[in-house]
Amino acid sequence: MVGFVESDHSVVFMKNKIAITECPRDAIQGLHDFIPTEKKIKYINFLLKSHLFDCIDFGSFVSPKAIPQMSDTAKVLSGLELDSNSAKLLAIIANERGADDACQFEEITYLGYPFSISETFQIRNTNATIAQSLERVKVIQNIATKANKELVIYISMGFGNPYGDEWNAEIAMQWVDELSKLEIKTFSLADTIGIANPESIKYLFSNLIPNYPKLTFGGHFHTTPDSWLAKIEAAYGAGCRMFDAAILGYGGCPMAQDDLVGNMPTENLLNYFEMSDNQRVDELKLAFTELIS
Known about the structure:
- The chain has helices at residues 24-28, 37-50, 73-78, 96-102, 119-126, 130-146, 169-180, 198-211, 228-237, 266-272, 278-292, and strands at residues 4-7, 10-13, 19-22, 55-61, 88-93, 108-116, 150-156, 186-191, 216-223, 242-245, 262-263.
- By secondary structure, the chain is α/β, with parallel strands linked by helices.
- The strands form 2 sheets. The chain has an 8-stranded parallel barrel with strand order 3-4-5-6-7-8-9-10, surrounded by 7 helices. A two-stranded antiparallel ribbon has the order 1-2.
């Protein structure tokens, strides 16, 4: 298995290796019909046994009113079959309470916090301004460190936003710089509404990666069926080696208002980096199809 290794409460990325975080949480959280807990457990155990992924974004500790599909995250966790070779588990949290809840579980390695550089989206997504979110992150980082967890920051709306909020690459880099002062080591640049282009991707990664050699940068891309390749090529060419994905490209941002915009399809990444054969890819797609059927 390639990708993450742990050292001194930080994530150290193994140079020139590709790490994929599979995101069933992102793929299914917006589905209207509740997926039974046992089906989720079966599916995530299948992902764990595949040994294709370095990390699995499996659930979230947020208000069940906001994300009812994830209300059974703790129950799902209790049914997972983990061993020393399993992919690490990541749970999304949106506030201090969620961090406290997630830190009760030894099985969870990473807490993911969406830090939007769009003021409008930060308020919509976490009910906090950017300034309030920064203070929140300070508390969450302290909670995570005490519990021996790693905090992963998603730079949400990292490539632009639909609200008219000011955006440029320098703003994204400014917030990475500010957050890194809190000893946060891992950042995922999130193409929340699928508008990143090769030029902006290359510019961000090629400026961040060399200037912050002790940090890990990943890409969480949303994409249309015909734009995924250009995004991956741009990110990889600029030094990115960590990618989020979801089988069949399910999920994405509901604000996109475009049914064709979803997550980066896992099968595309596996094929592009020659990390799996066609039979295993077909098995992954079948397993996900059975999950949501």
